[in-house]
Amino acid sequence: MDETATLIDSYTEMTELLLPNDTNTLGRALGGAVLHWMDICGAIAAMRFSNRECVTASMDHVDFISPIDIGEVVVVEGYVFSVGQSSIEVKVDVRAENPVEGDQRPTTSSYFTFVALDDDGVPTEVPSLDCPSEAEQALRDEAIDGRRQQLEELVDRLES
Q: Which range is the signal sequence, renumbered to this chain (predicted)?
């Protein structure tokens, strides 16, 4: 495949209002709800990039670093930062926003791998990733470095 697509072609932002159905008894976001939103955002980014149906192959380690409280806006952002032959790597970040005060804080992030499928449901080639702007190059580099650091920290924890 000689096609290319840009990182910005894949950029996806979703917002959710945290309501009681997605909270625990403390009025904070259920981890499973946040993971669900992250998976959807990542899949949309992969599909926008490849113009194909995409399925989740894996999700890297996730740490919830800050709670999301009922009534806050959940902002989920994803973009493609690397590709293989049929695989698409997507970084997904989540932040909480107080809609009254406008304060924002990061809550979690992770790296997903999706596989693009053809019309028969068979893995198929994806476009090459192009990052023509400095901003796109910086996002790609940040994702690659962040994933490498996360994996190194995980290996260090397992070895100690």
A: none
